[in-house]
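Annotators were shown the component list below and the corresponding predicted structure, then asked to write short factual statements about the assembly.
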Amino acid sequence: MKPFEPVIVAFCCHYCAYTAADMAGSQRRCYPPNVRIVRVPCSGKVDTIHILKAFEKGADGVYVAGCLDGDCHFKNGNIRASRRVASVKGLLDEIGIGGERLEMVKVSAGMGDRFADIAEQMTEKIRELGPNPIHAARTAA
Amino acid sequence: MITAERKPLEEIIAYVRPFDRILLVGCNECVTVCAAGGRKEVGILSSALQMAFLKQGKNLQVKEHTLERQCDPEYVEELSSMIDGADAVLSMACGCGVQEVARRYRDKPVFPAVNTTFMGASERQGVWAERCQGCGDCLLGITGGICPIARCSKQLMNGPCGGSTHGKCEISPDVDCAWQLIWDRLKALGLEDRYEEIMPAKDWRTGRGGGPRKIIREDLAE
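Structure shown to annotators:
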């Protein structure tokens, strides 16, 4: 049996985390290929339904990566995203997926190393949690 | 607007568990504005339900549809083309919408997905507060535009009571004393004299005291 390799969706703000991912590449810093990046114009643009659909389609973990506090290009999109993520964590608990599979992280455009560290930490965490129970149930059905 | 909040997922799951095909119906009016049962919330609940059931090994089919207004028969009629494809209806509208769907489609079980809460106004983004109790005999013209029925915890007609402290109600420091607000407003308008008038006991027959109410407009009714 193949070891479990999680699929992780990272919604990355164009102004920070997405650029930080670029920076990680420029620095020749490796990070796990489990992370699939979706570029968004602001972390505040990530809606509840986007996160749910990621899990519904089989993601094992999701994180929303926005700007550092006070640095949002749109003033407070990252703060809204944090609140939304906290609320969706509760919904994921209700569904039975587990809120711990979702995280909100904050990085600046220059933090290539931090971006790679987060990708590694999240991959490790989800690897420990195991597959998304929805995906497992669908595969079994 | 009429405000509502989604019921706990566990309660909704218990309602729909016996069924395989659900018609999930939202409403574009009040529940959309208070982010409880509009198109967006329908999509979220649909996804959440499908995942929750999939985890239990069941493939729940959910058809999503959001009506312009669920409390009007003209719009509820729209569901006629899709109702046969569902075993039950889950409504995200207020209680009026749920009942209208139940009245029109008598052979389908209809369940509420939200708790209808109160008639209120938006205080700021994401915060709604009760403003009206539909008493049927509006007093706002003599209370400076602040309702003592909806906003005074005791529904006092001549307040404030002794529980008013620093403009707050004794039930919670987060609740404004309605009569303090009324006094402040009357003073700002130069209408302090109005406060001196003793209001008689309210006739509650215009409210729920007279049983379920109905409005019949002779010029409009067919």
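Statements collected:
1. The two ends of chain B are 27 Å apart (CA to CA).
2. DSSP finds eight helices and seven strands in chain B.
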